[in-house]
Each structure stands twice: as structure tokens, then as C-alpha cells.
Amino acid sequence: MSISITVNGEAKTTETGQSVWSFLEGLQLDPKKVAVERNLEIVSKSLFRDVTIEEGDQLEIVHFIGGG
């Protein structure tokens, strides 16, 4: 079963019960190199595997880019 969420302002669907970690991997993002805000609250990297994405969640994902 799939659920509807918003990611960086875009409507998306994902599987019910999916963790933040597995969702990021599904987007081909390295969970160690991004920051995630869920419903206006920062999700600690240590909780990415434990936090489950739910219907209607709003995620903001920020990539870290090196340079100088």
C-alpha cells in the first residue's frame, strides 16, 4: 500500500511503513550526507532507521556539497 507525502515541495508516493533511511536510499541519496526535516522538525541522523514516514508527511531534504 502506498501513501502520499511531500518532498521538497513536490507530491510523491512511497510505501507504507518505510523508514527515512530506506526512503533516502530509494532516492539514491546517501543518508550520511543529507539533513532531513520532517513536518518542520529536524530528524536526527541516529533516528533515520527508526522514524517511519506517514501519510501526509512533509519532508525537506538538504544535500551537503563540499567546495571552497
What descriptors fit this protein?
mainly beta, Ubiquitin-like (UB roll), 68 residues, globular, 1 helix
Would you give an account of this structure?
The protein is built from 1 helix and 5 strands. With 68 residues, the chain is mainly beta. The protein has one domain: Beta-grasp domain (Ubiquitin-like (UB roll), Roll). It has a 5-stranded mixed sheet, with no helix packed on it. The mean pLDDT is 95.
Q: Which CATH-level-2 architecture?
A: Roll
Number of strands: 5
CATH C-level: Alpha Beta
- CATH topology, by name, is Ubiquitin-like (UB roll)
Distance between the termini: 44 Å
* Overall tally of domains: 1
Sum up the overall morphology in one term.
globular
Q: For the record, what is the CATH homologous superfamily label?
A: Beta-grasp domain
- Estimate the helix proportion, in percent: 10-25%
Count of individual helical segments: 1
SSE sequence, one letter per element: EEHEEE
Spatial strand order of the main sheet: 2-1-5-3-4
Question: How are the elements arranged and paired?
Answer:
Layout: E1 2-7, E2 10-15, H1 20-26, E3 34-38, E4 41-43, E5 58-63
Parallel strand pairs: 1-5
Antiparallel strand pairs: 1-2, 3-4, 3-5
